[in-house]
Structures are given as C-alpha cells and as structure tokens.
TrEMBL record:
Species, as recorded: Albidovulum salinarum
Pfam family, one: DUF2849
Protein name: DUF2849 domain-containing protein
Residue segments, region Disordered: 70-101
Organism superkingdom: Bacteria
C-alpha cells in the first residue's frame, strides 16, 4: 500500500541573489513561504517541479518541500524548511535580524 501524498511547495534559490524562493500558483517566484502554491496532487507537483527546473536563468536547485496549510498560506513541516524561511544565518541583517524565531 502506498503512502498518502503530503502536500508540497516548489522551492529553489534565486540565481543572482541566492535567496530562498517559492513558486506561486500564478508562476511568480516569491521570497515569502506563505505566498507559495500548496500542491495537493502528486502528478501536479511533479509537473510544477519540471516547469520550475526549466527556469535556469532565474533559479537554481528547485525541489519539492513538504508543507501544510496554515492560516496565512502554506507552512513548512520540517525544521530545515522552517530554517530556510528565515534566511541566511551567517550575518546579522535581513530576515535573520528581524526574525522573532
């Protein structure tokens, strides 16, 4: 018996800046996890990943990350993905500086 599909978001890194980005349902890349498209179907998730991987002039390292619905959009499930939403941890400015987490 196969496992139930866990909802996903497509995530990658912006090619120029290196920021973590997420694919939205209207095909934009956003730096806000809550704006990402929450994909609930495995076939659709694979299709969206393939579409993302073709955007080599914009992003690098696209993959599917587990997520769950939240009050303000998708929320990460795993620690690694939650950590990525806070931005780089090697300097004291940007998302890390203003984060309360």
């Amino acid at each position: 018996m196969s496992r139930a599909f866990t909802p996903k978001v497509v995530t990658a890194n912006a090619l120029i800046e290196g920021d973590v980005v997420y694919l939205t349902s209207d095909d934009r890349w956003t730096r806000e996890h809550g704006e990402a498209e929450l994909i609930r179907d495995e076939a659709h998730a694979q299709l969206r990943l393939l579409q993302a991987e073709k955007q080599r002039s914009v992003i690098v390292g696209a993959y599917l990350a587990d997520a769950k619905p939240g009050p303000n959009g998708p929320e990460p499930i795993h620690f690694r993905e939650a950590f990525r939403t806070r931005g780089p941890s090697n300097y004291a400015h940007g998302k890390q500086e203003t984060s309360n987490v």
